[in-house]
Amino acid sequence: MKRSGELLGLAIISLNDGKEVGRVNDLIINPEEGAVECLVVDDGTRYLGVRVLPSKFIIGVGEYAVTIESATAITTLDDLPDLSDLLEKNVKVIGTKVLTKKGKLIGTVSEFYVDEENEGKIVACEFTAPNSNEPKIVPADGVVTFGKDVLVVVEDVDKLLTDKKTFSGLAEPDTQVPAGSAQETEEQQDEDNSEATRLFEERQRQFLLGRKVSKKIETEKGEVLAEEGDIITEELLEKVKRAGKFTELSMNTRS
């Protein structure tokens, strides 16, 4: 799960050739599906029109990059005419008013959370109530409508709300923690980060198995870990991981 803000600015890496093919510039929201339909890509070719990456072609989202199989996953609006309607609707989510079905204003959306492993589904929205500095989280099943100006939620939304501290461990640590608890907070963060890294690596492993190495992979001392053309196996993945070359391998493969 990612905050929408964490996606912006990420490099987009083609695993086929290990190249950075652009960066995430914006998100296109599909309000009917409650999902990020596409990422808007800045690849330095704006004169060719808006370039987009459909969420369904994303292999993984890490702290450094969004990975895709190849640059061919990035396309233009001409190839996806349905996106024109979404652009006209211009639903941004962030900055919209949060309104119950009976018209009660309960806040303004400040962030939303995306399930990058489920084609960009929006899983929750964060909002701040008037005259309050404490953000609240409303899950997607409490949202009735994602609109351009208003996020409509169910009338009894209070039963669904949580705060950032209890929402899937995504909240930033409280800066005013009791004495002696700082180490525990750091340890929990380390556990969360380790689990996220493990899941991302596992997805990468499943993608890499059976592919071919497109560039010789060596240790810092010149020991050859993999030759160009080698088939990637579990044994090879373990070897390059122990040598700290897992990322380099993942960026230098072909089908």
From TrEMBL:
All copies of domain PRC-barrel, residue ranges: 4-46, 92-155
Disordered: annotated segments: 170-195
Biased composition (Acidic residues): 184-194
Pfam families listed in its UniProt record: PRC
Lineage top rank: taxon: Bacteria
Protein name, UniProt field: PRC-barrel domain protein
Species of the source: Thermincola potens (strain JR)
